[in-house]
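User: Fold both of these, please.

Assistant: Here is the first one.
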Amino acid sequence: MESYVRVGLPTVEDKLLQTAVSRVLTPIYEGIFYHESYGFRPGKSQHQAVEALSREVSMNRMRYIIDADMQNYFGSINHGCLREFLDLKIKDGVIRKMIDKWLKAGILENGQVVYPTEGTPQGGSISPLLSNIYLHYVLDTWFKEQIQRLLKDDSFMIRYADDFLLGFTNKEDALRVMEVLPKRLSKYGLTLHPDKTRIIDLDDDGEGHPRTTFDFLGFTHYISKSRNGKRILKRKTSSKKLNAALKRLSDWIKFYRHKLPIAELIEALNQKLRGHYAYYGITFNIRKLHTYYNRTKCLLYKWLNHRGGKRVWTWAKITKLTMEWIPLIRPKVYHSYQLAKP
């Protein structure tokens, strides 16, 4: 059976215009966006969001986490609500007409051109900014200015694009917010995934609870003890992300094992290892980095022995190759926040 995908590709002219409009609007909204919003913003990164989360839980004793998962966020943004939010800051008629044009742009779906009434421009460079503007008013401002002042104890919010966490020291506060959060989002056309959104008690021993860990930005976060015996939040590469990365790596080695000389194959593998370490090379995650490194060697051993003919690569020979002759890059922590000066 023939299948179709939904495609919405802006023209080269539109891409240039969207980039130009984004550059004009970004300074305006950077002046009002909250510090707790980290996604698709200049000078902000996933690692900063992860470190902020660690500080809140480890130093501010946040125990209860609302781990929220929104369904099809980028495709659910209500155009009418977005226009109302843009009205608050953007009065220029030319810019507004261009944004309206991009919002209404046709999308090729199942061989037919459809004109969406919700969602941000597919593949457009202005889409991240528009999605940030939407959640700034729907979630960030609501939580920071309306909800937090009504809570009994301390709380926090950390958001990266549509991926966000809410944390609390008081269980009753967490339950109250959990009750009103879906109502707030549904008012603006957004839906929380019922099976993936929940309250987590990080200090629970796990008995009678579905989990005491949570995933955020590719890491699994969990409570452990520091060397001084203090309660701190640690993180490791999530199993889902690690398995997906290894599957892609296996497919890549399988495809290129016949096409590249050994030296070029390992040079290309080293580029992939650098990229993996650059993101996942974070404090407390060295064991998972070594897992990725060791599994890379195993995949190399497997696929080099499937090049045709008899097996010529023993494990001892692979070890010599990857450690002495043409070494694979060893794991390295690039983001050592605990050692950084304040």
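And the second sequence with its predicted structure:
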Amino acid sequence: MKSKDNNFHNFVAPILVLVIICFVVTFALAMTYGVTKPIIDKNTLAAANEARAEIMPQADGKFEEVKTDHLVLEKNKVFVDDVYKASNGAGCVITVESSSYGGLLTAMVGIDKDGAITKVKVTNASDTPGVGTRAQEPGHLKQYNGLKKLGNEQIKSDPTVQHVSGASISSEAIHKAVFCALKQYNKMGGVK
């Protein structure tokens, strides 16, 4: 009888304790997620709206989501996340994800009612600081302002804009994001 008790204490009891600990921790994590998710979603939306207002100040900070078929330029590499148009008809802000050196880069592109780019802003990227991030600087991105079309999908073949030496992959990712946003805008027939 002693060997059965020893087996229970040596093998079964620790397993039961671990299962109970895992259950309690999982339950606690699920409860924490349930409490924090709405707060995180609210903060994410507020940050996105703030970025949209910066990209298209003519919109007076009021946007509404456009339900449309989102363009996919390259599967899992360059695609539209969302499209928001200004409530006053000033234009729209298109969020695009594009494959970059450090993974997917997220860029917002403002396009006014006439089809001209108002501003490009990278809102999320994991490129190498000081190297790839040079392509994300406002000084580099402002070259897109006012453009209605790009000369080519590839930045090195496009005479309308310059890439950043040493950050060619990041430059290409941003360029493809802008190209995709303009294509999405034209596919929608502009802002209606």
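The longest helix spans residues 2-55.
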